[in-house]
Amino acid sequence: MNELVREPKQKRAIEKKEKIIKAGFDLICENGYYNTNTAQIAKKAGVSTGIVYQYFKDKYDILFEGLERYSDEIFFPILKNKEISFEKKDFDKMIRQMIEYYISNHKISNIAHEEIMAMIHSDKYVAEFYYKREAEMSSALKDILIKNGFTEENLYERVHIMMGLIDNLCHEVIYHKHDDMNYELMRELVIDTIKNLFKNDLV
Amino acid sequence: MNELVREPKQKRAIEKKEKIIKAGFDLICENGYYNTNTAQIAKKAGVSTGIVYQYFKDKYDILFEGLERYSDEIFFPILKNKEISFEKKDFDKMIRQMIEYYISNHKISNIAHEEIMAMIHSDKYVAEFYYKREAEMSSALKDILIKNGFTEENLYERVHIMMGLIDNLCHEVIYHKHDDMNYELMRELVIDTIKNLFKNDLV
Amino acid sequence: MNELVREPKQKRAIEKKEKIIKAGFDLICENGYYNTNTAQIAKKAGVSTGIVYQYFKDKYDILFEGLERYSDEIFFPILKNKEISFEKKDFDKMIRQMIEYYISNHKISNIAHEEIMAMIHSDKYVAEFYYKREAEMSSALKDILIKNGFTEENLYERVHIMMGLIDNLCHEVIYHKHDDMNYELMRELVIDTIKNLFKNDLV
Amino acid sequence: MNELVREPKQKRAIEKKEKIIKAGFDLICENGYYNTNTAQIAKKAGVSTGIVYQYFKDKYDILFEGLERYSDEIFFPILKNKEISFEKKDFDKMIRQMIEYYISNHKISNIAHEEIMAMIHSDKYVAEFYYKREAEMSSALKDILIKNGFTEENLYERVHIMMGLIDNLCHEVIYHKHDDMNYELMRELVIDTIKNLFKNDLV
DNA sequence: TATGAATGAGTCTTCATTCAT
DNA sequence: AATGAATGAAGACTCATTCAT
Predict the structure, then answer these.
(1) A181 to B160: CB separation less than 8 angstroms, yes or no
(2) Domain boundaries of chain A, sorted by first residue
(3) What is the CATH number of domain B75-202?
(4) Which of residues 19-38 of A touch strand E (CB under 7 A)?
(5) Covered bases, chain F (protein CB within 7 Å)
(6) A85 vs A106, A157, A201, B16, B72, CA distance in Å?
(7) Is the pTM of this model over 0.85?
(8) Using one digit for the tens of pLDDT, what is the confidence trace for D49-104?
């Protein structure tokens, strides 16, 4: 363990640190944590192996800082999307937009998404981080909905269930096209189900 | 890579192979694939390291055969449960039983479940295997429901959505107790949601 | 840390372990612990680097087992010397023989002696081991002297002081020939001093 | 190897160099040469790592200059002690004072003493330096004794033997309390032995 | 079949030293 | 004269896989 891990202050150093994080995270997202080594990370970041350990405690630390920087982009980009209308009257449209957005986003970071999910399931701290972030995002979405006139009652729970439904649907659509599953139909069933969850708000 | 992997025919040999699979799978489930080595597996199985490579192409092969043998126990034990009534008139009870069963089962194989989920997300072939099995199980459940009087229309899709809802709920309950989430409430919401999915069958 | 360090049972394996200990100890004695690496040890022992860690927990472990095997040869060979007479009447001769023996022995394992002394001074466990062994040897010498008619009173302490005097003298003679020091004279002074320590036994 | 090591002439530069030497020596004394790195030294000295190599050829050089500055304090402080009377008539008292002083001094710089001893035994140049200094100190002590009326004959050799006896005794007392060794007794035996060495001077 | 000893490439990490600024 | 970022070789240790018996 290097006791002299430094927090870079000069602009160039900060950029270098970011480069390492990006390179490390990209590689891990592409090949998995165990199939990525520090030499590869250093090479991709355009630095020497030694410098890596002046910015990071260990290989794991690179992953973790990467998670902090980039996992929102992969898992929770919806709330940043300005085109989605969260108004009650646009509910049906909103759900459809969220699904569309989710799927297109998943498709871009397909492998990354899966590799990170793998880590969430195998590493305690990654899991902790992810679930905390997930809770924050559910809360944020809840707040947005309240602002748009949704009833507060059970809202957190309903939002959570809704996110799960969307998540499962999209995952299904993207990854494991079962031949005998009708995805158009499934999408409509999911949307109906979500609407039912919010039936009190939708008159 | 050993080209001479043999399929054991004698009884003792078959038992030995099974021992290795069991030992390997147990260890991987407990500590993860990358944190389990072949020496440990051999030791736990009570065989020499060398013999392992007469039964298996490589370490990965042990995992895979383990998956084939034991993953159902971890992921899809519900259908084997004789106490669950799948009749239409017991629908509410059925859902509750499934949730109960799912949770108690998860709790037992907590770590195993997570480690395998990790592999599903990081390994193409494990994923393929799992999703195929998942589809088979959904089909089987669908058939059971049909036998018990459920409408066939969209049934496969509805079953899939239902399983996802239960899965998310249980995962939530078991792993990441968010302080501000009311799980009793959530459970009832999920059950209502599922009932809504099958409203045509439930008059 | 390798949990699977094995204690070799087959003859060839035991020989191999001994070879590693010998190679490691020799290299450490010649170049010092920090200037010896595991690859060198393996090479000198004629084995691969990997095998080293099947017999030893770590590099330090090699050193320590070497100490247990060989340090007596370097530090306390006197008692094994059959030619030395420990009888009271031969006291003067005995001292001279011990000095001779010590010096010739030191000269052979000159560097080894110093490298181990270095470790004794810098490593807690090596020190502990050495001082325990030293005490055992002083006790053994005491017992021999008692058997040869020496008074038991204060004998342990007198033996210890005697050993220190011989040690210093020999070290002086071998390592740092100070130009202005007369070693012949010093030797005689030391012998006289020792005789004085045992004057009650020597009439 | 840096060919441009400069000898600092300005006061501030000299102070900086001294700071590095002190920091380096302190750290090495505490943790050993191999467990001290240049970054730690620079940090403790309050300078940058780069500057170190403007004042010193390499890490070893820092150690060596430290030795030159500070080793006397650790190994030969006795001669500087004004309270010790070296007169013939106070001989018994002198020996006792020296032993006391030695022990209390050892106790303070316990670890430092051992770490430097380790280097003396493992490094040729450190050994050379130390033994030269030791000889100078013996000479100085000899001169003091002559001034106080001691016979010159064999004095250098007798002083050396005496120092060795004290050294061994103190080391014994401080480091490895053997349960079965009577230290009070040993001390008296050593004092008697030393007196015997100087019996011609003590009538 | 079976053993377990043996291999050696591969991994993370450290650190003395140099270099751009 | 000074900084501290950067280098990269080197080291301890691991482990899937093979081999001699």
Answers:
(1) yes
(2) 11-65, 75-202
(3) 1.10.357.10
(4) 36-38
(5) 1-20
(6) 21, 21, 16, 61, 42
(7) yes
(8) 999 999 999 999 999 999 999 999 888 888 787 788 888 999 999 999 999 998 98
